[in-house]
Every structure is written in structure tokens, then in C-alpha cells.
Write the C-alpha cells for this entry.
Amino acid sequence: MFVQQLINGITQGSIFALLAISFAVIYGVLRLVNFATGATYMMGAFAGWLTVQYVSRNIFLAMLAGLITGWCIGYLIEKVAIKSLRGVARIASLICTIGFSIFMMEIATVIFGAETKAMPSFFNEKAFTLGEVSVVWYQLFLVGTAVTILLLLQVLIFKTKAGLAIRTVSLDFKTAGLMGINVDRTISLAFSLGGATAGIAGVLGSVYYNIVNPTMGNLQGLKSFSAAVFGGLTSIPGAILGGYLLAIVENFGVQIVSGGYRDIIGFVILVGFLLFRPRGLLGKKTSL
Amino acid sequence: MKKLNIAAVALGSVLLISFPYIVPNPYLVRVAIMCGIYMILASSLNIVIGFTGMFSLGHGAFYGIGAYTSALLALNLQWPFWVTFPLGGAMAALFGVLIGVATLRLRQIFLAFTTLGFGEITRIVILNWDSLTRGPMGLPGIPIPTFFGVRFSQAGYYYFILLFTAVVVLFIYRLYRSRIGRAFIAIREDEVAASHMGIHLFGFKTLAFTLACSIAGLVGAFYAHFARFISADQFGGNESFAILTMVALGGTGSILGPLLGAAVLIIFPEVFRFLAQFRMVIYGAILIFVIVVKPGGIVGVRGVFEKPVQAIRAKHSHQKGGR
């Protein structure tokens, strides 16, 4: 039982971690939360579902579709909600991303219908058994892909010039601008990256749970935000850690509280951390 | 000019009071009652968003808490409406204080997310607490309120909500002009300056938030006894977003704005029935459109969305302001 919960936790944690990263990248650059992350996750899932359904039953193609969709949505949101609202109270941007979130969710409902669609599963042969627990290839694939993406992002942010720009802007964007960094393009890049990560997470998540529906991103987005706060919104490794920890805590927590209350665990962690340690486990010591 | 205003108000009052008699159409009176309910909800959310500049995305949950509290007390303990109605407001206020204390010291974004999360949690708890709330089946048969032994007719509901709306609007109008209201606006404009003027930031923020939640709870209690059936889905995230859209569309920070926004967004879907499935799409689009193109809303006052702060200064004041 213990091993089973741990494995489930790590698998689901990979999805949380990807979304938490999406929050952390944008929060790092702009000190802003993109509310539409959950909706982007959902749109990514639908892009993947369309690809699998109508183009080819290939998970890599589906992931590519999710990535492109997420990238475009992130780019668009930045153009409308951030760039055109420069110099206006920051909260206006936040509310604008909420508008996007509602809009995407409802447009998906109108186009695809509110009912849940089945996403086919991939690689669901048994890989190995650990005691009484069998692990499916897809779980390994999911964790592997997530870790690869997280590593790639880490390389991008810490080893490339674009990453240096992102880090500089997150320290102080006025000075960054004076140093010749194209702040607009950097912010746009951060949003696109965040969107792309969320889009891929959508495909991976929908294949894992085998479902696609317009509201699938709601709780997922909310919980991933809790995960990001848990680990530390200002720190990317923190967000990853928070994602995995939250999923593991959730899976063990279900043993104690009944299944229906499962979704509350993340929220309790969120409020607890905001109250007693707002910077999270690994966050930098800045006031939030 | 002043005479004209008085005349307009008098004419408006006469029209509103005689409405159920001029238009004896139960459907239209029902729409009018729903308008009243949402006008109060939007006005109360406006205390938080428009006056104090904080973002609550869980207003629907406080509305629901009021509704469930009042309904459960009336159904299980047979307490009269006049007792359960204020208790609904009190319960919502209690939760408001708890959420406020947890998040109001932090940056606005956290309040936004926590209240959104709180809304989801409330819905989940209502759905799962079968023994108390009957879960997904909802609560039917909530008793009709009585007034000195006479059961409320539809006109009774109408007059109740009319009076209630009038009291809330008057209260907010007086609040806006009071010391407390000015403190709220000072916090919205610049937290650092406000705190240096001796305004207790945390205290006033909590006050504004709790006030809004208790009003929402009161309306919820009324709604429960008016609709006589409530279920968790009526108080979910969509409800909160709808109220938020009403405030944004009407104009944040004005007294008239939320009233107009609520009226437009309630009447619009009734007139354009064929657009029913696009209702929330339109809400989302309105939210984006209003903020980007017409930040002042219909009324066009200088609200929260047009604060001409420099980005850098805003960053610093937000970072230090909450503490």
C-alpha cells in the first residue's frame, strides 16, 4: 500500500511539478500569477486529444500539439493582459488573465461539449512489479518526460543568454532594461515558456487520467499553485519539490480523510504556508 | 439640477414600489428579484475590489455559506427566517474573518488565489458532507418566510429585496463618505502612504473583507428562502466570476456601477435566450474587454483598473505594503 501511494504520488507529482514551474517562471519574472494556467493545461489536453483522435495515434505528436497550443496561448495572454496594460495597476493584468481563463474554459465547453471525453492510453504494458505493485511503462515515461522538461528548463534558465535575461529581469526589470536587455521580449518569452509547459502537462495529464473535459484544469491549476507556494514561488527547484511533495502528501492523506475531501489537502497546505511560511520551503527570503 | 434629482429619485421610487402592480407578471417580478440579489452581491464585492483594491474571487462561496446556514437552521431546527437570516450573514462573516486573517497581510495575488481555492473547497465540502447537506441532491423545501404570521407572497419577496437593496446602497453610500470609507480608498490608492497616515492596514482590510462577506451571506440567506431549493453548484466558481464581471462591467469603485453591471448582466441573458450557452463565454470576453478597452466600466469613474501608478513604484509598494 505504501509503495503504491508513493508511486502514484510521484507520477501525479510530475504533472503538478510541470504546472508549478509554469507558475514559478512567470511569477519570477513579473511577480504575477497567471490565472489562465489551468485553462492552458486544459487547452493543451484538448490539442493532444484532437491530434490523437484525428491525426495520428502518436503521443509525441500530441505532446508537440500541446506544446504549440500552450506556447501560443501564453504569447497571446502576454500581449493582451500584460503588454497592453503596462503602467496600469498590476491587478488589472491579474483579472485579465482570469477573463482568459473563463473565456477558454467556456469556449471549450461550447466547441467540444461539457461531457468528459476518453483519452486513449499509451504504453500501458506492465514494466515491472515492486512487491505487489505493478508499474506501467507510461508512469515511467511520464516521470521521465517531466524530469527531462524540468532539466531542459533549468539549462535554459541558467546556461543560456535568454535565461540570463529572464533572471536579470526577475531581479529588477528597470535596471535590466537599462543594461540593454529587451524586457518586453523577455517577459513574452517567460509567458510563452510557462504556457508551453502547461500545454505539455495537459497532454501528459490527460493521458494519465484518461480523460479530457473543459473543467479539468480548474482544480489542477489551483492545486499546482498550492504546490508552487508550498515549495517556494520564487524558486524553480522549490516549485518542483512542492509539486512532488504535494502529490505524495495528497496520496497519503487520502488514507486518513475520505476520498471526496482529497482536493482540500492542497488548499490546507496553501493556507498553512501562507500563514506561517509565505516564502515556501525553498523560496528566497523576500516579503511576499 | 438638485430639484430634478429629487424628482427623478421620487419617480424612480414610485415606479419601483408599484412595480409588482404595474407589471403583474410573475416572471418579470422574479427577474426583478434576481436583479436585486445580484445588485447587492455586486455592491458588496465592490467594497472589497473597488474601494479597498483587494481581489476576492470567492464571493460566491460566502453567498453559498449564508444560504446553506439559513436553510439548514430553518429545515433542521425550524427556526424562523428572521432569526436564520442574520445568522447566515454572521456565518459568512466568520469565514470571511478566517480567510482574511490568513491572507490579507500578503500580496493581493494570494488573496485572489486563496479565495478562489476557498470557493472550490466550500463547494467540495457541501457536495461531500452528505449527512448535513444531502450532498449533490441539494436542499429542497426550504420554508417560506412569514411576516407577522402571513407567508411571503411574490410581492413580499420583491419588497423585502427592494428594501434590502435600498438599505445596502444607502449603507455603502454613507460608508463611502465616512472615515472608514476614506481609509479604504486610501489603502487602495497607496498602502504605504495610508499606513503612514496612521491607517491600520490589516484592520481596515479585514473590516472591508468581512463586511462584504457578511452582506453576501445575508443575500444568500434570502436567496435560499426565495428559491426554496439550493445545491452546491449554484455557489461555485462561475457564480463568483459572474459577480466579479458585474462589478468590472459597471465600474469598480463607483456606487452606481455594480448596480448597473448587475442589472445588465441579469437582464441580458433573459432577453437573448438563444445565447444561453454562450453566457459564460460572454462574461469572460466582457472581463477582458472592459479591462483592456474601457477600464472604467459603464459608469467610467477612475476605478481600480486605471490607477496611474508607475510600474516600478507599484512593485515596491506592493512588496512592502502588506506588512
About this structure: The longest helix of chain A spans residues 2-30. DSSP finds eleven helices and four strands in chain A. The longest strand of chain A covers residues 126-130.
